[in-house]
Amino acid sequence: MSAAAEAAATFQAVHGRTPTGVWSAPGRVNLIGEHTDYNDGFVLPFALPHRLAAAASRREDQVLTVSTLGSDGRVQDSGPLDITTLSPDAVEGWAAYPAGVTWVLRDQGFDRGADIVIAGDVPSGAGLSSSHALECAVALALLGLAGVELDDGAEGTPTRQQIARWVQRSENDFVGAPTGLLDQTASLCCTESHVLFLDVRSGQFEHVRFDAAAAGMQILVLDTRAKHSHAEGGYGERRRGTERAADLLGVKALRDVTLDGLPSALAALPEELSPLVRHVVTENQRVLDTVDLLKAGKLAEIGPLLDASHESLRDDYRVSSVELDLAVDSARAAGALGARMTGGGFGGSAIALVRESEVDTVENAVAAAFESAGLRRPRAFVAVPSRGAGRDGLPA
Ligand code: GLA
Question: Measured by CB atoms within 10 angstroms of the end CB, which terminus of the chain is less buried, N or C?
Answer without folding.
Answer: C
